[in-house]
Every structure is written in C-alpha cells, then in structure tokens.
C-alpha cells in the first residue's frame, strides 16, 4: 500500500507513525513544504487524558514527549489585583518544535519517508497513492481547491489575537485580564520548557484599534504588549515568531473525505486556542484514522468509518471551544463581577468544569465562591450566613415583594390535559407535588386568555369562572402545603393554535374541531397549516382586553407572579420576529415597531397586576434561523420590557419557524441568558437541557442567570429540589406529613455524598505532575 501525507505537522506525522506501525510493509511518504526544523508558534498543550491516549497508541513517542514536557496542575486567574489558583487540572506543555522533531525521529525509525521543502499542490502528482492524507493545516490548499466538495464554513471571530513567547517562567496555566486606557487585554500563558513560555494575547477589535496596534510590525506589537503586561513579565522579554495579529477562523467542513483523500487536523476543523485543543484534535484525528484503517476492509470504507465515527467528538470539542471563545469575546460583560465570581466564570466557561467538579478539586476556592454569592444575597436584604453559606441554588431571591426560598424553578410545561380550559385533578397533583418537592417557584403551563387562544383542545385557560375556581384551588393548595411561590403564565397561541395534542402530532393542525387563528401576518406554520388572519386594530384591542381580563382573574386566584408569553412563535412572539412579521404598518419593520404591540399588552397587564407583585416575560432569544432574532436583538427586547416594568426575563429560544436549526447540548440556552442578564442588566431565568443541581449551582455562581428552570427532571422527580437540598446540606421547607422522609434522606445524603466523593477521588488517576513529584521525592531526600 502507498500512503501519501501532505503536511508534516503533528497530525500528518502522527498519522504516518500509527499507519506505519499498523502496516510495516506500506510505503508511507510525508511531504512538507517547510524545512525540517521550521516551526511557527511556541508551545503546545495536552491534558493528562490526551497523554493517556498517546501512551496507548505509541509508547516510544509518548516517552520522548513526556521527557520534554513542563507539567502544571494549577490554573491561575489574575483579575483586578487578585489571583485565584485552582488545582487538579493536570496539563502539560511542550515546545512545538521539540514535538515535531520527536515525531519526525520516530517516523524515521519506523521507515517513513520524510520529504521537506516539497510543495504538493495537485493530487495528480500522487496518482499512484492508495490513500492521500490532507494534513496541510488551517490554510489547507486542498480544502480550498475542492471547496465545493468539502464545503468548509469559515467563521472569522471578532477578537484579535497574537501568539508570542517569553523567557518568563510560569508554574501554572495563567490567565491575566488587564484593564488599560484603551480597554481590556487578555493573556493566555503557560510554560512549555525550562526558560520558555507561550503567551497568546487577545483583545476585542475596538480596543485593538484604540491601542494603536493596527499597522505595527511584530516587534512593535511585542513592545506594546510588554508595556501592558510588564508588571507580570518582571523584565523578561517577549519573543516573536510570525506573531502577527489576526482573527481566529472557526472552521467546520461539511465533508472530510473525497475519493481516497481525507482531511486531518486543522485542515478539516479548528478549535479555539482558549481550550488548548488544536494539537490534541489533530493527533487524535490521526488515532481515529489509524483505527478506522485497521478495522475496515477497504480504504474507502475506512475513510467513511473515520468520518462518521470521529465527527461527533470533534463537534463536541468545537462546541466547547465556541462557548469558551464567546466568553472571552464578551469579557467586558463580567468586568464588574466580584473577582472570585469572575474567576469561577473563567473556570466554568466551556461547561466541562462545574461547581461539583471544582468542589472536589479546589474546595477552598468553591468556599470563596459561595461566600461571594452569599454577600450579594445579603446586599439585597437577606440575613444569610456568610461564614458557612449554603450553595447558590439554595440562596433566596426577591422580585419586588415576592421572596423565593431557593433558585430552583419548575419550568412552564404544557400538559395538554385540561377540559375546555379547566385544570383538573391531574393539574392539582402535578403542581401540588412539585411544590411540596421543594422548588422555590412553580410556573403554570401556558394558560390561554381565550378559547381561540389555545394551542390545543387540551390547553388550560383563564377566561371564565369555572377555570378561575380550578386555578384558585391549585394556588391555595400550593400556599397551604409548601413555601413555593406560583407564577401564572398567560399566552395566546396565534398561528400555532388549533393543533393536535403533543403526543398526537405536535403543531400539526386539527383535522376536525378547529377554530380560526390569528397572527401578526398571514403566514402558516406548516404549508398545510391553517393560514392565520392578520390582526387589525380591532383584533389587537380584543386580544389585549382578553389578556387584561385573564390578569385580573389571576389576581383573584392569588397567584404570586405573572408571566407574559412572548416566545416560541405564539401570537405575541409572531410580532417580535421578522420571520413571522411582514407587516408594513407601524407594527412591522424595525424591532422597535415589532415590539410595539407586545409592549402595549404587557403595559396593560402591568397596570392591572398588583404593583407589589413581580412580572416576567418569556422571550425567544434566537430564532435559530437566518434573518431571525439574534442574541443582540434579545438584549434590546429585554431592555424594552425592563423599561416597561418587567422584573425577570425568562430566556428561552426558537420554535418560531419550522425550519429552525437549533444547536442542542447541555445547558444550550444558558449563553443567551448570560448575554441578556449581563448586557441588558435585567434579572434572568435560564432553561433548556439543564438536568442536575450541579448545573444549577454552576450557572448561578458564574452569574449567568438569577433563577434556573428545569422541565424534564421535574417530570420524573417532583422532589428534585428536596433531594438536592439533602445532597448539599441546605435546610428546606417540608410539610409535616413528609418530615420523616426528609429527615431520612438528609441523614443518608451526608454518608452518600462522602462515599461518592471518596470514590471520585480514588478513581481519579494521578496527574503526571503528581507522578513526577512523587518520582523526585527520593532524589530530594538523598
């Protein structure tokens, strides 16, 4: 077999090593356009888990790499005169040049042919190769040559960055957040060998311009950075090596394989430097390709298997990188945070590290985080313990005169189980059991303001006395048997009305028994959905009156809070989104115009709702569709409702148009809550694939939301919050009938948590920094 590898970087060299080990008789040639000892950049970084992989697949190169590595266990965050160090991270740095030379030497040992200063620009020159590996880097000419096939999407990120080096020794992966007269600068720095460290400097485009960096050469840029970070460099110089300022390209390729050619490493996909995974991804691509070649009967089958099997892991890493890079792009959102909360945000920005994870690895740091959060709560007038504060999830919150005992919320979830809008025994048990289960706040499902406002025939309503009496029964039960507060969510289905029950066909039109539907514009949801009537002024007045009438009934029911549903493509949301609002009058066009009617309804409800009780609004912070609402629009929407008197923005996303393409994942909507909260400066509630108390604490402690709503977890476990309180040792209200059960779970949880943490600690392999320290102890003793 003949294998040609274009590109002599880590991906290409490691692929050559693994494929040659697998096929000793194969003729493998690596073509590299640069010289053997040319390299750009300074150090590379790997986690202990990545090194475990290297050890498994090629022990000789692994041993050589680890002999050359600088190890560290801590991450140090420097911010506003403070330093927070967090241990237990297990990372290693190595010179990129050294890594390449190690891999070159190992490849030669195995009989791989390495050809340098050879520029291959046409695969026809390699026509006799059975496999062509395209590892020609971030600016891959072959990816671009076959752009219509590979279909790369290149997203040039907004921040500017430059990669430099220094002789400054470092004993931790170091983040430095530096305020300047021009704006914030960030340094990502780590040691990669004795006397050498990598320094990546980053700033936003506006600060870059104000600082006069445009047009400076490499040395002039280095001098400017040395001025800004000189206090930490302590006289050590900054080194340059193609250290130009540029924008990071996030690359995703629709296809990785063409005929017998396959993209590897940065040629196919990139991950932002803030999670240190670029070289890791490249070398793990080589591992995945080698595995596929070992298992598949043909080259073509192997390449298909490689792409199918590897894509999910690459996309997960890219998603983490996306979340991380956005945090750094918008670091100004958090600049006024308490420094320990800021440091916690740095640590948890990519979702891989969480509150519980840090509690195991850095308990003192998490205690600081808890105290900082408790201080914020005390500043709001609560007499909370600052010496031994409870976890953020169990800190109270006040909205106007309503106080919630904890931050766990039962999300509004349609049950589709009402008869003519009347909630029945099912709803009493549903809401009552979750209130008894300990949640601080319960939201009703979207309760419709009129019979023709319903989504389905099974939706609850609040337009007549029978419905009001049924809701009053539920509210009174919640108040009598729990400390939970209960919020009434009011909405109108609009063009998504007259549809089947969820389990019969979500959003599909009723085949019989339907009703007329209305919307901002006459656009059906599905092509075969009913075409809604475009609302005229008379319809607007009628619907607004329905919302006000339902609000007054909500007052009579005794609800603690009121929410207006302006999300998910329902009636009021259809005014907000340009995808569903094509009007040419004063209610269409600009965002301000599109908000005019929803704000009019909200203001009328606010006037009818008691002044001492809070109101919230649910919004879709993005439509997940081209031309629709964006995160920046969501900030403007939140500000407008804030000025109208809203107390909380319930941040959801999507469900506006049927062809939306949401990006799902853990806590996938939380970044929008983060943006709205910290740019619009309003309290927010986040929701969306949040499943654990650990995630709740992580979100709250990082300042990404003020309340956290959980849906599916509450469906299967009404006592979710009670269980979490036992786990974290936080006292919580419980009806007397259930006290024996509460006491038992609280007793058991002390032991269960200790056992769990002990197992976690024992199961965690020692980092290479720890192993190295242990190995040097006898020498030190002698």
Structural class based on helices, strands and sheet pairing? alpha/beta
Number of discrete domains = 2
Radius of gyration: 29 Å
Mean pLDDT: 94
Q: Please describe the biggest sheet, giving its number of strands, its sense, and whether it closes into a barrel.
A: 8 strands, mixed
Q: Name the CATH superfamily classification of the largest domain.
A: Aldolase class I
Remind me, CATH topology of the largest domain? TIM Barrel
Proportion of helical residues:
40-55%
Q: Give the end-to-end Cα distance, rounded to a whole number of Å.
A: 54 Å
- Tally of individual helices: 27
Q: Would you identify the regions where 5 or more consecutive residues have pLDDT less than 50?
A: none
Highest CATH level, the class of the largest domain? Alpha Beta
What is the level-2 CATH architecture name of the largest domain? Alpha-Beta Barrel
Provide the β-strand percentage band: 15-25%
Give the overall form. globular
What's the count of strands?
30
Based on the model shown, name its key terms.
782 residues, alpha/beta, FAD/NAD(P)-binding domain, TIM Barrel, 2 domains, eight-stranded mixed sheet, 27 helices, globular, YqjM-like, FAD binding, Bifunctional salicylyl-CoA 5-hydroxylase/oxidoreductase, FAD/NAD-bd_sf, NADPH dehydrogenase activity
């Amino acid at each position: 077999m003949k294998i040609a590898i274009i590109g002599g970087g880590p991906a290409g060299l490691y692929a050559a090593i693994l494929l040659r080990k697998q096929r000793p008789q194969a003729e493998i040639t690596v073509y590299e356009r640069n010289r053997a000892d040319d390299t750009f950049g300074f150090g590379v970084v790997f986690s202990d888990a990545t090194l475990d992989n290297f050890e498994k697949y090629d022990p000789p190169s692994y041993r050589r790499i680890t002999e050359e590595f600088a190890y560290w266990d801590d991450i140090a965050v420097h911010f506003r005169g403070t330093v927070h160090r967090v241990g237990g991270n297990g990372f290693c740095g190595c010179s990129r040049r050294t890594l390449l030379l190690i891999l070159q030497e190992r490849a030669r040992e195995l009989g791989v042919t390495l050809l340098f200063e050879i520029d291959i620009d046409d695969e026809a020159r390699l026509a006799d190769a059975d496999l062509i590996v395209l590892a020609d880097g971030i600016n891959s000419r072959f990816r671009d040559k076959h752009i219509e096939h590979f279909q790369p999407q290149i997203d040039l990120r907004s921040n500017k960055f430059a990669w430099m080096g220094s002789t400054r020794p470092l004993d931790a992966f170091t983040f430095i957040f530096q305020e300047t007269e021009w704006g914030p600068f960030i340094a990502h720095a780590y040691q990669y060998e004795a006397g050498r460290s990598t320094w990546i400097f980053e700033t936003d485009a506006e600060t870059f311009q104000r600082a006069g960096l445009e047009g400076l050469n490499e040395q002039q840029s280095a001098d400017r950075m040395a001025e800004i970070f000189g206090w930490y460099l302590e006289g050590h110089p900054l080194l340059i090596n193609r250290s130009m300022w540029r924008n990071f390209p996030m690359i995703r390729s629709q296809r990785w394989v063409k005929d017998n050619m396959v993209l590897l490493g940065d040629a196919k996909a990139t991950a932002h430097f803030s999670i240190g995974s670029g070289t890791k991804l490249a070398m793990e691509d080589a591992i995945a390709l080698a595995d596929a070649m070992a298992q598949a009967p043909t080259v073509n089958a192997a390449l298909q298997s490689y792409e199918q099997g590897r894509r999910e892991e690459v996309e997960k890493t890219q998603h983490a990188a996306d979340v991380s890079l956005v945090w750094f792009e918008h670091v100004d959102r958090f600049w006024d945070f308490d420094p320990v909360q800021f440091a916690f945000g740095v640590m948890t920005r990519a979702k891989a590290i969480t509150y519980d994870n840090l509690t195991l690895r850095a308990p003192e740091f998490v205690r600081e985080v808890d105290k900082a959060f408790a201080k914020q709560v005390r500043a709001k007038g609560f007499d909370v313990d600052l010496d031994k504060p409870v976890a953020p999830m169990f800190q109270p919150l006040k909205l106007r005169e309503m106080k919630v005992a904890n931050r766990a919320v039962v999300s509004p979830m349609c049950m589709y189980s009402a008869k003519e809008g009347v909630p029945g025994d099912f709803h009493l048990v549903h809401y009552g059991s979750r209130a008894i289960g300990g949640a601080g706040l319960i939201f009703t499902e979207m309760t419709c303001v009129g019979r023709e406002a319903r989504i389905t025939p099974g939706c609850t309503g609040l337009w007549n006395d029978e419905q009001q009496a049924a809701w009053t029964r539920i509210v009174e039960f919640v108040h009598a048997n729990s400390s939970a507060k209960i919020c009434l969510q009011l909405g109108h289905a609009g063009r998504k009305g007259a549809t089947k029950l969820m389990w019969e066909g979500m959003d599909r039109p009723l085949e019989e028994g339907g009703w007329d539907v209305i919307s901002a514009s006459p656009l059906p949801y599905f092509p075969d959905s009913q075409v809604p009537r475009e609302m005229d002024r008379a319809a607007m007045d009628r619907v607004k009156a329905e919302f006000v009438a339902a609000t007054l009934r909500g007052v009579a029911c005794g609800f603690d809070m009121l929410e207006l549903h302006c999300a998910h493509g329902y009636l009021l949301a259809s005014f907000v989104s340009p995808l569903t609002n094509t009007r040419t009058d004063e209610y269409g066009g600009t965002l301000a115009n599109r908000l005019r009617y929803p704000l009019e309804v909200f203001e009328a409800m606010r006037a009818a709702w008691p002044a001492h009780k809070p109101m919230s609004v649910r919004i879709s912070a993005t439509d997940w569709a081209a031309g629709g609402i964006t995160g920046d629009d969501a900030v403007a929407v939140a500000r407008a409702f804030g000025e109208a008197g809203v107390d909380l923005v319930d941040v959801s996303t999507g469900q506006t148009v049927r062809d939306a393409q949401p990006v799902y994942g853990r806590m996938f909507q939380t970044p929008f809550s983060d943006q709205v909260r910290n740019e619009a400066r309003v309290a927010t509630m986040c929701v969306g694939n949040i499943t654990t108390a650990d995630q709740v604490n992580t979100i709250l402690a990082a300042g990404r939301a003020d309340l956290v709503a959980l849906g599916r977890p509450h469906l299967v476990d009404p006592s979710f919050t009670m269980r979490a309180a036992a786990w974290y040792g936080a006292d919580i209200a419980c009806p007397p009938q259930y006290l024996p059960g509460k006491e038992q779970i609280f007793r058991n949880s002390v032991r269960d948590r200790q056992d769990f943490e002990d197992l976690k600690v024992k199961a965690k392999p020692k980092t290479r920094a720890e192993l190295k320290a242990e190995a040097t102890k006898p020498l030190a003793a002698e």
